[in-house]
Amino acid sequence: MEIIGYIIIFLFMIIGLISVIQGLILRLLTPKAGGRLLMVLPMERDGGDAEWLLRSAQIRAKMMGGKYCLKIVAVDCGMDDETKKICDMVCRDLDGVSVCGLDEVPRVIKN
Questions:
Q1: In what order do the strands lie in the sheet with 68-76?
Q2: DSSP character for 96?
Q3: Full-prediction pTM beyond 0.70?
Q4: Which of 6, 25, 30, 37 fits a disulfide with 68 by CB distance 3.0 to 4.6 angstroms?
Q5: pLDDT in tens, 19-40
Q6: Nearest 5°: phi and psi at 66?
Q7: Which residues have C-beta within 8 Å of that of residue 74, sequence separation ≥ 6?
Q8: DSSP-assigned letter for residue 80
Q9: What is the DSSP string of 7-56?
């Protein structure tokens, strides 16, 4: 029984070490000057995982650090009505997340 406990603790130590290394690499590869980070997510007609995509994109963007102006844009590439409702709901809940059409993408990138 003791060996199982040691194995579980060892696995958690390995996972923690990998997480620390990943964080250090992310910090080392991040430019010193702040900037703008824009994630563009094309959303298509079957958007059953649209909410998951938007929420996970926000978490990934926040992991980049606080020096960046983070913005996530869901691009309507033929979304159905249900997917549009889900995206609008998520946009109301999360800061920095918006939905735009294909024709609006250049304007969103410039701003």
A1: 35-43, 68-76, 97-101
A2: T
A3: no
A4: 37
A5: 999 888 877 877 776 667 788 8
A6: -90, 0
A7: 41, 43, 50, 53, 54, 87, 91, 97, 98, 99, 100
A8: -
A9: HHHHHHHHHHHHHHHHHHHHHHHS-SS-EEEEEEEEE-S--TTHHHHHHH
Cα 30 to Cα 24: distance, rounded to the nearest angstrom:
10
Q: Which amino acid is at 99?
A: V
Angle between helices 81-93 and 50-63 (to 10 degrees): 30
Q: Where are the domains of the chain?
A: 1-30, 34-110
Amino acid at 55: R
Q: Which two tokens stand for residue 79?
A: 């979304």
The burial of 35, by beta-carbon neighbours within 10 Å (0-12 exposed, 13-18 middle, 19 or more buried), is given as exposed
> The tokens of 80 are what?
């159905």
Alpha-carbon distance 83 to 48, whole Å? 7
